[in-house]
Amino acid sequence: MHRMNDHEHYMRLAIELAANVPDFPFGALIVHRDSGKILAEGWNKSSINPTFHGEMDAINQLVLYSPRISSDQLALYTTAEPCPMCQGAILWTGIQMVVFGTSIRSLQKMGWRQIDILAEEVVRRSPGWRCTITGGVLEHDCDALFALAISRRNDRK
User: Fold this and answer.
1) Which positions are annotated as active-site residues?
2) CA dihedral sign, ordered 74, 12, 22, 150
3) pTM of full prediction above 0.90
4) How many Å apart are CA 99 and CA 81, to the nearest integer?
5) pLDDT in tens, 109-124
6) Per the count of CB atoms within 10 A, which of 17, 52, 84, 132 is most buried?
7) Sequence-distant (≥ 6) Cβ neighbours of residue 113 within 8 angstroms
8) How many whole angstroms separate alpha carbon 145 and alpha carbon 134?
9) Rounded average pLDDT over 56-71
10) Dist. CA 112–CA 8, nearest whole Å
11) For the chain, what percentages of helix, strand and coil (3-state, to nearest 5) are there?
C-alpha cells in the first residue's frame, strides 16, 4: 500500500496544474492518503467566478466525481497557502491535511493582493475541526511561478 510520504511528488503535479493559468498559477489536487490516488484536480478559474480558486475547483471536482469518499483520508496539495475562503471550504469538506508551496506572506511581499489571515489561523479558530498544515514544500519552485506571473502583469502596465 502506498503511503503518502512524498509531498514533493504531489506538489510537482500541482505546479503542472498551475500551468493551465500562468497569470494566476494556483494549482491544487486532492489525494487519498492511503492509496496515493489522485481524486481531484483544480486550478484558478477566477476569470469565470472570483470564488473559483484552485482549491475550490479541486473541491468541486471531488464532490462531483467522488461524493461518497471519506474525506478524513484526504490531503490537498496547492501551490500557494489557502486563503481564508479556501481554508474554510477545506474544513467544511473535512479534508484533514493541507500541503502548500508559497505562503501568503511571500505572495504579499511579491505584490499579490491577499487577505491577511493565514491558513493556520483559520484552523486554530475553528474548534471541532482538525487539519494539519505543512508549508514550504517546493517553495522556491512555487515562488518562481508567482514571481513570473506578477512580473508579466507589471510588464503589461
Assistant:
1) 55
2) positive
3) yes
4) 8
5) 999 999 999 999 999 9
6) 17
7) none
8) 19
9) 90
10) 24
11) 45, 20, 40
